[in-house]
Write a structure and sequence with these properties.
By secondary structure, this protein is α+β, with helices and mostly antiparallel strands. Helices cover about 20% and strands about 20% of the residues. The chain has 22 helices and 37 strands. The strands form nine sheets. An eight-stranded parallel β-barrel has the order 17-18-21-22-23-24-29-30. Strand 1 and strand 2 form a beta hairpin. Helix 13 runs antiparallel to helix 14, helix 15 crosses helix 16 and helix 16 packs parallel to helix 20.
Length: about 900
Amino acid sequence: MQASPDLRLARAHWVAPGTLMWPRRFLPADLDPAALDWTLHCAPQGGIDLERREPFGWTTIALTVRPPGDPHPLPEGQAPHLASEIALDVEPRDDLADLLRGQVVVTVRRPDRTLVDASGVVAPLLIDHLYPDAVRAELGVTWDAGVPTLRVWAPTAHRVDLLLWLPERSLDETPERIPLEADRDGTWAATGDATWLHARYQYAVTVFAPEFGRVVENRVTDPYSIGLTLNSTHSLVLDLADPGLAPPVWTDTPTPPLAHPVDQLIYELHVRDFSRADKTVPEALRGTFVAFACDSDGTRHLRRLAQAGLTSVQLLPIYDYSSVEEDPCRRTAPDPATLKAAAPDSTEQQEHIASAERPAYNWGYDPWHYQVPEGSLCTEASIGAEGRVREARLMVGSLHALGLRVVLDQVYNHTDGAGQGGTSVLGRIVPGYYHRRDELGDIARSTCCPNVATEHAMAGKLMVDSVVHWARHYKVDGFRFDLMGHHSRANMLAVRAALDALTPARDGVDGAAITLYGEGWDFGEVAGNARFVQATQGQLGGTQIATFSDRLRDAVRGGGPFDEDPRRQGFATGLAGAPNGASVNGTPEVQRERLLGATDLIQLGLAGNLRDFTFVSARTRRPVRGDQVPYKGVLAAGYADAPDEVITYVDAHDNETLFDALTLKLPTDVPMAHRVRANTLALAVATLGQSPVMWHAGTDFLRSKSLDRNSFTSGDWFNYLDFTLTDNGFGAGLPPAADNADNWVHMRPLLADPALKPSPADMRQSHAMCLDLLRLRASSRLFRLADPAAIHAKVSFPVSGSWSQLPGVVVMVIDDHVGEPVDERFATVVVVFNANPWPVRPVVPVLGGRPCVLHPVQAAGADPVVRGARVDDGQVSVPGLTAAVFVERR
C-alpha cells in the first residue's frame, strides 16, 4: 500500500468505453479484488483530494471487477501487456469526452473505506475510440485558393485560441487572440486570409495538466509546424508551394535512380561535420545546409565517391531539435587554439567542451518539431525565417546534382520533452496521450528520453504524416528510423503504404522508390512483442524495410558496442594472427573458436543474412541454416527473408569509428600500413556482400574521434572531419569523461603514441583503396543479386568447414553459370578475405579449370599489394590483410 499515492502517475488504463485495467502487482496478494470498492473520480478542473469525504464535488462512478474468464477486455490487437491485469467495468455513459477533459483518478478502498491505493488514469485507447475520424484530419497549415487554415488536434482541451502576430508586428507586442472552433474529430481550427502568410503564431491550449493537478493555459508551438522562428519559440505560417522557397537545383535536378534497394551504398554524415572544418567553404556557410551547394573539398570528395559507386548520403537528424542554441552570437565553444595547445592524451580538451553552456553541436537525437529543418544548420539570415525550407531544399538538390540520393535519419521513438517540460509540445496539447507509460505509471524512457507511443492512432499519424511531408515537400529519397524496434510492424507498414501512394504526377515524387530502414533492436518495455508486433530484426519479412545487422558488424570488429573492455578482437581487428594479449580475448583455444564463429557470421552476412541460407559451418564443419548459426550464444544469426531486409555496416556515428576500434584492438606495434589494410579489409567485408551497405563518413580515410565512443555532444573538436585528407582527428585528447572515462587507462598510452596517427599519405592511400571497393561492388550485378533464390543458387563458401579451411580466411564464390545469368561480363566472381597478416594459399576445387584473373579494378587499382594475388588451377594466393576479387570472363 502507498502511504500517499502520487496521482501524477498513471497506472490505470481506460482502454474502452466500458473497461479500465488495473495492474495486479500493485494490489496486495492477500486481497480479493472483488471484495474491494473501486471508484472512478472525474473532476473537470482537477483538485481531487483522497482525504475528502463525500460529497466530493466531482463525478464518481462505481467500478465493478470483471470475473476471470469473461470476454477479453481489451480492444482487439491492442495493449496485450494489460491482458492479465484486473479488468474493471464502467457503466455506460454518454459524457466520456467531457470526463476526459479533467482529472481522472481510480481509488481502491477496503469495505471500511480505508484507502488501499489510488492512481491517475491514462486513456489513449479510449480517445482513439471516441475520435476515429481524427486520423483523416489535415493538421497544421493548409491552403485553399490563397487562404490558410490552421488546425490542431486537442480532444481533451477546454478551449484553444490562436495567438497570431502578423508579419509587420513585433513578437514583443500583444498578439491577436482568435478563438478556434472545435470539431467532432477533436480538432480545433481557424481560417484566415492572405495577410497571414509569414505570420508567427502559437496555440493557447486550456487543458488539465496532470503534473500540476489543475487546468492551465499552455502556450505552445504547432506540432505540425512547417516553419519556426529563432530557437523555435513560434511557428510560422508558410506556403511550401511558394516558388521563392524552391531553388532551381532542387526543382530541376532529377532524383538519382536506384534499380533495387540492394543497390544502396550509403555514406552516413552529419550536416555540421561535413563543412565545419572545410576552409574551401565560405566561413559564413560552414556547418550549414548551404555548404552542400559549394564547390569545396567536401563536395569534391562526395563526387569522387559517387562516381565510384556510392549511391546515397544518410544525414543525421535535420529536423528541429532542442539541444543547440540557434543564435550564433549566443553559442559558446572553447577556443580552438586552447584545444590545439593541449597534449594528445590530455583531459583538458574534453573539460573545455563539457563546460560550454550553450553548445553549438549535437547529433540531434532530441526531436522538438518533426517537420521543420533545424535552425542551427542554417545560415544566420535564414534561422528564424522561411529560409530554413529553402536552404534544406538547396542541400537536397545539390546532393542530387552530385549523383547522390538523400536519406534522412528520423527519431519518432521519443521526444526531447514531455508533460509540462519546456521543450514539450505534444504533452502540453494532449496530456497523457502521446507518450508510453511504464509499469510504474510514469512515462517510459527506455530509449533515453520520453518514449512516443506510435501505437496510438494520432501518434502513429504524426509519424506517417511527417515522413510524407519530407518526401513530398523536400524530395528526399529514403528514411532511416532510429530505434525502429520501439515502433510496431504496423507503424512501418503504414509508412510504407503512405509513401507508395505518392506519384510523380500528383506529388512530384515516386513514393514507391523511397527506401526505408532502421535500428531493429529489441529492448525496453516493448521487448519481445510485449505491446505489439515490433519492427525488429526478423519481423519485417517481405516488406523491403531493412534493419541494421549487428551480426557481421560484431564479427568483423570483435566484441560489441557495450563492452567494458574495448580490446576484444574480431576478424579484421587482430583475432586472426595479431593477438593483443588482453585477457578479455581468452586463451588461444577460445580465440580460435571465436574466430571460426565470426567466420560463420561473416559468411552468412555476405549471403544477405538469410535465415534459410545453407552452408557448411566453419565452426562445426556441418551443414547449417542461417537461423541455426548462433549469435551471442543464443540468438539466431540469420533473420532475413530477402537481402534487402538487412543493412550491412562495420561502423556508424554510434560507438568508436572503425579506425579507433582498430587502434584499441590491434597490438600497438602493428605498422600503420597494416592498419590501413585492416581498415580496408573490414570495409570490404561489409561492401562486397548481397545486402545494402552503409559507411560512416570519413571511414574511407581513417577518420578518428580520438577514441570517443559516443560523440553526440563532443563538439566540432572530436567530430572533426577533414576532406583535405591531412588530419584524421586522432590524438585530439582523451574523449569526454561521461562515456569514456572508464577506458581512459587503455586510451591514454595510445593517444600519446605518434606512431598511431596516420600521415596524409596514409589517409590518401586508404581513400583510394576504398574507392576501389566501391568500384568493385558497382562492377557486377553478382554482388547485388536481390533475389533470395538467386543467392541460394549462386553464392557459396566452398572452403568453409573443409580440410582446406584456414583460420581468418573466407572464400566466397558467386557462380553465374548456375541459374539465369545476371552478368554479361563475368561468369564467376571469387572473393577471398584474408584477415591474417601473412599470405595464404587456400585450395578452391570448384575453380579448377576456370580461368580466373584478378578483377580489372584491382589489377589497375590503388593497392599494389593485391596485384600479387592470383589463381592457379584451383589454388588461390592472396597477400595478408587483403580482400582479393577474381573473375572468370565470359
